[in-house]
From TrEMBL:
This is Zeaxanthin glucosyl transferase. GO terms for molecular function: hexosyltransferase activity; UDP-glycosyltransferase activity. Keywords: Transferase. InterPro entries: Glycosyltransferase_28, UDP_glucos_trans. The keyword Transferase applies. It comes from Rhodopirellula sallentina SM41.
Length: 390
């Protein structure tokens, strides 16, 4: 693993060797500080802050990674699709690389909305025009990152990227979504694979939880992730929305500093700093989530319907897919209030179609191949240097 020093401890615990990139620019603790700052932002402001981080990451990776990869005698790279500069490094070093889509598929098509927008799937002419406008806006926001990459490619005598999708691997692109969770697409290359999630218990810390406090009521589990889990007002809204319903609410604050100051919430929910999410989902009737891809797929893998409260980055796009697949409802964080959230909770708990659709996606995940299929694709691409066709 080639990354910032903050990722080193968890990576080594998972049995993977580690090389630090950009320690002077990203000293220990900087990732936590950045995520805490991002947790204070929403919508366009959060996206702009993320773009600034991406640009800094790109500059540092393009500068330091070639030397580290050479010294480590790397034969192939697995690149997160949201790290477009890494593919250029692989090209420069003439080593094969494969893309993993750990979030929403980023391949652009005018039939599919930008993942940063909460728009429904609409392949009509008007929908395509709307989508093109959305991509134009995101391209303008991402211009600093793209310029950083293109300037370095010019110095390395690599041809410029003519289109956004040119930055992705021509050997294999792999999404941890099941294909049923993606909007209909006819634009993806023949070497694009939907393998389902790569989740594992390995490397996850053991978390204490007061299981003895759980009742026989339907369990509603709320977590806004480790990035955006510091919205005390949202936790209060969630608690008030569940008051009076025949449910038991568990809130995980995601390690948020709000833990010490949040006080007693209405309805007396179980509030913990961290929850054993995979274990708790086996008991959950409904999850209230920020709509991160990992949490969303963990819900679907356990056939748990959702109410998503997307805040920033690709979460609105994930929320749109949750709604489109019938696995839940989605309420943008800036518009959420007690009445709207209560209505959504009652709707998802009261209508069995949400649970049935979550079970349908659970079955889709089971037949997608997961991490074993992913590893087979990566190995074949790395050894043959030929496209691995789906």
């Amino acid at each position: 693993m080639f990354s910032k020093v903050d990722a080193q401890e968890a990576t080594l615990k998972a049995g993977i060797s580690f090389r630090v990139i950009g320690e002077s620019e990203f000293p220990k603790g900087s990732m936590v500080d950045s995520l805490a700052r991002l947790g204070q932002l929403k919508g366009r402001a959060g996206l702009s802050y993320t773009v600034d981080l991406f640009n800094k990451n790109a500059r540092v990776f393009l500068r330091d990674a070639p030397g580290e990869l050479r010294r480590s005698q790397v034969d192939a790279l697995i690149v997160d699709q949201a790290t477009p500069e890494a593919g250029s490094v692989a090209e420069y070093l003439n080593i094969p690389f494969v893309n993993l889509c750990s979030a929403v598929v980023l391949n652009r098509a005018d039939t599919v909305p930008t993942p940063f927008a909460p728009w429904d799937y609409n392949p009509s002419i008007l929908g395509r025009v709307r989508n093109r406008i959305g991509y134009a806006v995101s391209k303008r926001l991402l211009r600093p990152v793209l310029k950083t990459i293109d300037d370095q490619r010019k110095q390395w005598s690599l041809p410029p990227h003519r289109a956004a999708n040119d930055r992705f691997s021509t050997l294999a692109q792999i999404s941890q979504q099941p294909v049923e969770f993606e909007f209909p697409r006819a634009d993806l290359p023949s070497w694009f694979h939907f393998t389902g999630p790569f989740h594992s218990h390995a490397g996850r810390p053991v978390v204490d939880f007061p299981y003895e406090r759980l009742t026989d009521q339907s369990l509603v589990y709320a977590s806004l992730g480790t990035i955006h889990g510091n919205g005390a007002h949202l936790f209060s809204i969630i608690a008030r929305a569940c008051m009076g319903l025949d449910v038991q609410l568990v809130i995980s604050l995601g390690g948020s500093s709000v833990f010490e100051s949040i006080g007693k919430l209405p309805g007396d929910p179980i509030v913990v700093r961290y929850a054993p999410q995979l274990e708790l989902l086996k008991k959950t009737a409904l999850m209230i989530t920020h709509g991160g891809m990992n949490t969303t797929l963990e819900c679907l893998n356990n056939a748990v319907p959702m109410v998503a409260i997307p805040m920033a980055n690709d979460q609105p796009g994930i929320g749109a897919r949750v709604k489109w697949t019938g696995c839940g409802e989605s309420l943008p964080a800036k518009n959420v209030n007690v009445a709207k959230l209560r209505t959504a909770i009652e709707k998802v708990l009261g209508c069995q179609s949400y649970r049935r659709n979550a079970k349908r996606l659970q079955a889709a995940i089971a037949r997608s191949g997961g991490v074993t299929r992913t590893a087979d694709i990566v190995e074949k691409a790395a050894t043959t240097r030929q496209p691995v066709l789906a």
